[in-house]
Amino acid sequence: MLKEIVYDFGGYNEAIFHFLNHIGNIGVLPYVLRTLSGFFRIWSFSIYYIMFCAYQYYRINTLSKDIRERAYRDIYYKLVQVGICYAFFGFTYAMLKFSINLPRPYCSLPEGSFITMINTDHVRCLSSFPSAHVGLALMMTICAWPYIGKIWRVIAICTVAAVAFARIILAMHYPADILYSIIITFLSVGVSQLIFAIFRDNLIKYFCEVIKPYAIRS
Fold first, then answer.
1. In tens digits, what is the pLDDT along the chain, a chain of 218 residues?
2. Which domain holds residue 172?
3. Residue 66's closest CA among 216, 199, 190, 167?
4. Contacts (Cβ under 8 Å, ≥6 apart) of 63
5. Is 139 part of any domain?
6. Contact by Cβ (8 Å): 166, 136
7. Is there a domain that residue 110 lies in?
8. b/e map of 32-71 (b: 16 or more CB within 10 Å)?
9. Is 19 inside any structural domain?
């Protein structure tokens, strides 16, 4: 009964899925959106993060010595904040996916009632709730929001919406998975910021000094 209210929405969850799944599977659109959503796998962010750290290491050491240390501290605290956010986000989503175990549309709906171009043989069926792809796209948007202009903010919001649409037309998630993913991501980011604030002036500050000799070339 509870699932019918908070997840099925009295049948609207499935009805909206069918509507979006059918109108979205037109021409090359599913291929384009599948490629786009592929950039937002949880493990992919670790690659982006490492690459960004390497870039910042290079950038800091191209600055003049008088501003190098201040730049290092600024970027260090931001990278730690994002790292905590990502770690807590990944833990939260893994815990929810492997404890709630709701089936994806492609394995819970009758065959022929949906469309997907995905080879589902190697996709875990019981991982519908919540959508990690949408959550990661939103998390990246939230983290980047203070540092990007209006045009990039619009692009970021459109990207999140496109990834959400992609997960439905690929029959990987129901609309409810998308909705709750947005809520969970905002909560995860909020908790991670609290964790960062608690340890900023002690543990995080300590490692800032430990790492500094390796991050700044003399």
1. 678 889 999 999 999 999 999 999 999 999 999 999 999 999 999 999 999 999 999 999 898 888 988 999 999 999 999 999 999 999 999 999 999 999 999 999 998 999 999 888 888 999 999 999 999 999 999 999 999 999 999 999 999 999 999 999 999 999 999 999 999 999 999 999 999 999 999 999 999 999 998 888 76
2. 29-114+124-215
3. 216
4. 71
5. yes
6. no
7. yes
8. ebbebbeebebeebeeeeeeebeebeeebeeeeeeebeeb
9. no
Q: Is residue 4 part of a domain?
A: no
Per the structure block, which two tokens stand in for 44?
Answer: 């992919």
Residue 96's alpha-carbon distances to 4, 88, 99, 100, in angstroms, are: 19, 12, 5, 6
Count of domains in the chain? 1
- Residue entry with tokens 């490629």: 35
